[in-house]
């Protein structure tokens, strides 16, 4: 396996003052180096190495933008660069002091550490000669000691290193392709090395060792070669919806700097990032090319139904529709269809399934995103959907732990509190997550929800100074003690979006990021200020608020998950990806699964007097009452597509635009009326139930045949009296609506069972 992307196995020839670098594409370090230092014109061949080490904080210039690349590097400087790389926090023990390195020497500490670690030695007279240029032989010896380089497979013939004291070190560098000779076959081991050459030597060895660590899946070794800034970047997953007031649908300067400056580990995509199958496939391919040797998590919220991002793909009817079917095999198939399409588009992480048990009809944010109101059903169908995603090579995420199903506040808008005791939480909210852990879920998303029974700690809100219960996202008791230690979850923990007001209003973002990581979050999703969040993690480690060991544990979990799903494998060509995406996304077999779920999920909520189904053989007028003109037009269009008799016309009425009298008059001449309701993502008290009740009462008084068509959360019968006929389709998307209309018209039979309780 070849893991290294930007700096793959290289051919490096060190000769005279030129270095030939062969890489797969231009490394971002080149541009970074030119921006940081102004005097690299005579050493462009070294820009990658200089920029790479400067980004890592290993090398520095002489001020005023000067690096002086062709100046000989001293023994002290060479030792210092290695110590900065390998032992930045170490203090010297001074087991061996040098006569010419007084305490006043600017690199005295680093020379002491390098000596303690066996990286450098002195001369027989007890001196170190810190300000003398270092030779090519000494450079080879220092690097092979520091990084424990073993001999490689390349054949080398260097004429002037035989019996040289550094022959073994030089041969190890050369046999791994990390150093070559001059055109005359010599290595010139005693020739001095300039600052540019040393930067290239060191950066290539580091990248080589990183490649070895990745190919050997030695994550501890890779962690030892990563900077704190890199590790912090792996723990962030921002969105990239807009740049310069335009949707981000292709690589631009903004996204390039966002990824590379923060060493990001992942991104979340939204509909603003997506135009078509070809565009998204290309975009994701290009995004991965920005990532360097550690690939990106490219994530999305593709739950199906009301939460879907992919245009032109298979728009599955959603979780509650699957709940109405109650078939785990079909839920598995839904996960496989979703996973297959995401994988071919270049998306490797899906924030689904929703494992919230929607026991609260007033829940303004979950609703039909849940499989239902019974914990066993949610557990069975949710884990089946999860396995479908995993089988297609896409990471599944169970959300929103510990459970968002019994809330009446949208965490996008405020901080929900679930006040149930521990026994009730075990029976309902926690049960699906326990099952998902048992079945091998790789990632769990923590919700911005307070659970006093799990953690009753309070903090002072920055919004109004009031005391608020600590949300699960920031609670060590909930994430570390409950989820990880008690429930045994060993995968990656991701927060819900940090842009949501449950976090954004009550906590300063930088403080919240540190609190979340301290509590056990591995990935912070959608920080508003990426730089602020990144710097907050780095600063918290440097100041001792977060331990380096905890950061390493989080990043190791992230790396292991990326490896488990093949993210380090060599990428296929863009052309191959585009051809596969064209075959897969929205394929006939996938659309057949979409149709099967939709048709099997249609549920009769009420049927009196034989008014369902309603064949339209004699109807002259069908009236459609909808809450919006777009919904009315959608129903009209799909009715006509199902094949109405020539004499039948469709008349639409928008409920919010007409008075009750005008609606009654408009429907008075209809032979049949479809009253649609789309109850979703708002407090139920905000709906015009009185207006809907007036329509139902008028239709009952006139004995007009009608059906109430529930397109969203199926709770209308909790608010309306006297409804004689009603069906639920659990979504306003085309497959859900078409399936419902076919049942109304008698073209199909309703087979779904209501997966929630109407009480």
What would you say this structure looks like, in words?
- The chain is α/β, with parallel strands linked by helices and 759 residues long.
- The protein has 27 helices and 20 strands.
- The longest helix has 21 residues.
- It is elongated, with a radius of gyration of 32 Å.
- The two termini are 57 Å apart.
- The strands form six sheets. The chain has a six-stranded parallel beta sheet. Strands 15-20-19-18-16-17 form a six-stranded mixed beta sheet, with helices on both faces. The protein has a two-stranded antiparallel ribbon with strand order 1-2.
- The N terminus is likely disordered.
- Helix 11 packs antiparallel against helix 22.
């Amino acid at each position: 396996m070849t893991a290294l992307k930007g700096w793959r196995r290289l051919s490096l020839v060190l000769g005279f003052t030129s270095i030939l670098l062969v890489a797969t594409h231009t490394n971002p370090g080149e541009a970074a180096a030119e921006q940081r230092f102004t005097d690299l014109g005579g050493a462009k061949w070294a820009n990658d190495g200089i920029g790479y080490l400067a980004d890592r904080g290993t090398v520095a210039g002489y001020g005023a933008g000067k690096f002086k690349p062709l100046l000989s590097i001293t023994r002290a400087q060479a030792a210092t660069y290695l110590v900065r790389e390998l032992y930045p926090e170490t203090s010297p023990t001074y087991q061996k002091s040098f006569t010419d390195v007084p305490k006043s020497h600017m690199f005295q500490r680093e020379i002491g550490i390098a000596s303690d670690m066996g990286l450098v030695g002195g001369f027989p007279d007890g001196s170190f000669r810190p300000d003398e240029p270092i030779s090519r032989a000494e450079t080879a010896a220092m690097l092979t000691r520091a990084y424990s380089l073993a001999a490689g497979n390349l054949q080398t013939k260097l004429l002037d290193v035989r019996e040289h004291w550094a022959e073994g070190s030089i041969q190890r560098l050369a046999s791994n392709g990390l150093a070559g000779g001059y055109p005359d076959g010599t290595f010139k081991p005693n020739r001095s090395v300039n600052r540019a050459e040393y930067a290239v030597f060191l950066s290539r060895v580091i990248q080589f060792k990183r490649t070895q660590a990745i190919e050997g899946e030695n994550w501890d070794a890779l962690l030892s070669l990563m900077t704190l800034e890199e590790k912090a970047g792996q723990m962030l997953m921002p969105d990239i919806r807009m740049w310069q007031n335009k949707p981000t649908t292709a690589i631009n300067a903004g996204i390039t700097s966002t990824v590379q400056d923060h060493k990001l580990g992942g991104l979340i995509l939204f509909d603003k990032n997506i135009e078509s199958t070809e565009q998204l496939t290309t975009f994701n391919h290009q995004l991965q090319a920005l990532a360097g040797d550690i690939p990106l998590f490219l994530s999305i919220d593709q739950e199906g139904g009301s939460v879907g991002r992919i245009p032109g793909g298979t728009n599955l009817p959603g979780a509650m529709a699957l709940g109405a079917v109650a078939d785990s095999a079909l839920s598995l198939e839904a996960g496989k269809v979703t996973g297959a399409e995401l994988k071919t588009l270049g998306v490797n992480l899906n924030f689904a399934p929703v494992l919230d048990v929607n026991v609260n009809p007033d829940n303004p944010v979950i609703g039909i995103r849940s499989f239902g109101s019974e914990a066993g059903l949610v557990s069975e169908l949710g884990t089946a959907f999860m396995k479908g995603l995993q089988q297609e090579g896409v990471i599944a995420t169970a959300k929103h732990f510990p459970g968002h199903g019994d809330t009446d506040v949208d965490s996008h808008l405020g901080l929900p509190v679930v006040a149930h005791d521990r026994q009730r939480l075990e029976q309902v909210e926690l049960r699906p997550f326990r099952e998902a852990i048992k079945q091998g879920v790789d990632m769990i998303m923590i919700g911005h929800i307070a659970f006093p029974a799990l953690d009753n700690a309070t903090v002072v809100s920055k919004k109004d100074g009031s005391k608020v219960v600590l949300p699960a996202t920031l609670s060590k008791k909930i994430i570390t003690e409950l989820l990880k230690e008690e429930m045994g979850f060993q995968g990656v923990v991701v927060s819900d979006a940090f842009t949501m007001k449950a976090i954004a209003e009550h906590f300063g973002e930088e403080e919240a990021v540190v609190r979340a990581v301290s509590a056990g979050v591995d990935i912070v999703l959608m920080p508003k200020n990426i730089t602020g969040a990144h710097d907050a993690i780095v600063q918290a480690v440097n100041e001792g608020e977060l331990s380096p060991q905890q950061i390493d544990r989080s990043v190791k979990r992230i790396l292991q998950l990326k490896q488990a799903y093949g993210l380090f494998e060599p990428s296929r060509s863009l052309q191959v990806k585009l051809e596969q995406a064209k075959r897969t996304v929205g394929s006939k077999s996938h659309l057949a699964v979409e149709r099967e779920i939709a048709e099997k999920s249609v549920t009769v909520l009420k049927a009196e007097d034989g008014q369902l189904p309603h064949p339209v053989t004699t109807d002259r007028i069908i009236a459609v009452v909808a809450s919006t003109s777009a919904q009315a037009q959608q129903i009209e269009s799909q009715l006509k597509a199902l094949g109405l008799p020539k004499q039948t016309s469709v008349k639409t009425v928008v409920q919010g635009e007409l008075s009750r009298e005008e609606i009654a008059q408009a429907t008075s001449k209809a032979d049949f009326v479809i009253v649609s309701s789309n109850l979703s993502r708002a407090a139920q008290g905000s709906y015009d139930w009185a207006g809907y009740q007036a329509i139902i009462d008028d239709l009952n008084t006139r004995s007009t045949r009608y059906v109430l068509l529930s397109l969203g959360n199926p709770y209308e019968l909790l608010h309306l009296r006297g409804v004689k006929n009603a069906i639920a389709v659990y979504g306003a998307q085309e497959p859900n609506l078409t399936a419902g209309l076919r049942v109304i018209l008698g073209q199909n039979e309703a087979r779904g069972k209501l997966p929630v309780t109407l009480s």
